Amino acid sequence: MYKESRVLMDTYCTITVVSTSRDRAQHAIDEGFAEIKKLEVLLNYFSPDSEITAVNKAAGIKAVRVSKETLEIMERSMEISQATGGAFDPTLAPVISLWKFSRDPSASAVPSPEAVRKTLRLADFRRIAIDGSTSEIMLGEQGMEVDLGGIAKGFAADKAVEAIQALGIKAALVAIAGDIRGYGRNLSGEGWNVGIQDPRPEAETDKPWEEIFAVLHLNDEAISTSGDYQRFFFKDGRRYHHILDPESGYPADSDLISVSVIAPEGVVTDSMATAVFVLGADRGIRLLEAMGIDGVLVDRDRKVHLTGNLRGRLTIVREGYKITDK
């Protein structure tokens, strides 16, 4: 088993492959990282040279021709937006830009209600026009912007896995921060063992991702986790986190603190984890079940809500968390 980590997409990416040859393993790892790097260049909201920036600059003016990769992720984003009734919406970018999330209160900022209302009118995924025949994308009004940060890492994990599989590697795991896609069997002959981060660890730590509350095996699947603990600040006794509700423009006031979604593709798990967090436990579980994908939802009382297929697959390893019968 060979493993390597690099910093891409503004986070740590780790690729693990199982191979009988160090050279074959290294080649596969390099190809996987090359796919992630290519997508980072195309999809980076903050880069003046990315295709997403070109689409945003041309909003309300003209359509922009894009690569097949950018076209594909935009089409998948629209599918998820439709399926979730807008709980996932990539056009929320102008509203997100109003917020400043930092654990340092002096560096954090809550925008005015007027600013949120004014900017929220620009957020509507239904005003994205996609022409697959010409590979063109157009946003309906000047000032609209797309940010694919809520789906790009899962999409990149999928593409990295495709590149590695194409080289004949029988098993690999690609982890881009909390978005993970695996296939095949590890050295023990089982699916990949994955831990879910504890959203409320008992003590502060320099490596919070090593604090887990549950474990499951990935069997040719992807998993993505979203939570209110990833980027947040406290102001006047209230926790403000980075997962915004597209209806209000404010941090989603659901009953959840963590959502992990398990499905065959990372592009689905990444975006659906955000959407389910916005929807809350009851509506989130119903939507996941209707779509035939799985989820681990943790509410504020540390009750763990599971879709039916996950019962018996998830192991709780931290006291204070309990699987609910609901």
Short description:
The chain is of the alpha+beta class. Among the domains are: 51-139, Orthogonal Bundle (T-fold), CATH 1.10.3980; 191-323, Roll (T-fold). It is 29% helix and 26% strand.
Low-confidence stretches: none
Please bin the fraction of helical residues: 25-40%
Strand content: 25-35%
Can you name the CATH architecture of the domain at 191-323?
A: Roll
Q: Helices and strands: which structural class?
A: alpha+beta
At CATH level 3, the topology of the domain at 191-323 is T-fold
**Helical element count?**
8
Mean pLDDT: 94
Tags for this model:
single chain, 326 residues, alpha+beta, T-fold, nine-stranded mixed beta sheet, three-stranded antiparallel beta sheet, 8 helices, globular
Notes on the structure:
The structure is a single chain. By secondary structure, the protein is of the alpha+beta class. Among the domains are: 89 residues, ApbE-like superfamily (T-fold), CATH 1.10.3980; 133 residues, ApbE-like domains (T-fold, Roll). 29% of the residues lie in helices and 26% in strands. It has eight helices and 17 strands. β4 and β5 form a beta hairpin. α6 runs antiparallel to α7 and α7 packs antiparallel against α8. The longest helix has 22 residues. It starts with a strand and ends with a strand.
